[in-house]
Design a protein that fits this description.
By secondary structure, the protein is mainly beta. It folds into 2 domains: 101 residues, Chitinase A, domain 3 (Roll); 51 residues, Thrombin, subunit H, CATH 2.40.10. 10% of the residues lie in helices and 39% in strands. It is built from 3 helices and 10 strands; from the N terminus they run ββββαββαββββα. The strands form 2 sheets. Strands 1, 2, 3, 4, 5 and 10 form a 6-stranded antiparallel β-sheet that branches. A 4-stranded antiparallel β-sheet has the order 6-9-8-7, with no helix packed on it.
Length: 164
Amino acid sequence: MADLIASSEGSKQKIQMGSRISLHFALLMPGGEEIDTTRRGKPAALTLGDGNLLPGFESALLGLSAGDDAQLIVPAEQAFGERVEANVRLLAKTLFAEFTSEEPLEPGLVVSFQAPDGELPGVVKAVYEDTVQVDFNHPLSGSDITFDVSILSVEAPLAEDAAS
């Protein structure tokens, strides 16, 4: 469960699963570095539970109301997951022929491989004579994320959503 840092109180419609909400948000790393935001543009509009946010971010919103401003700490395991060392792989350099024709194979290059359930992106960590070390962890894995939100509006779930 996310830890609430600050929130204003309100007696308005509270966010629950199925609520339609409009909000501004910023995602911040532990040092305060902003990694995503809607604050300089159009607010996000979503239905809680529709898959637009990771479940950890959705559960952090439960109980907030329109007018609330909150900074919620979402732990790594509920945000982008913990880092898994087994996801750092050493692969044959021959697998990278298509990548090297477009740009140099060097640390920091994002590569993508076809996987059974879609594409699997990874970040090149090191390049050796015959092999390449690739990290397939999400770049934000292992980090607690501050979810800084301003709730603009909350609409109750539709009756058919509440019944299901």
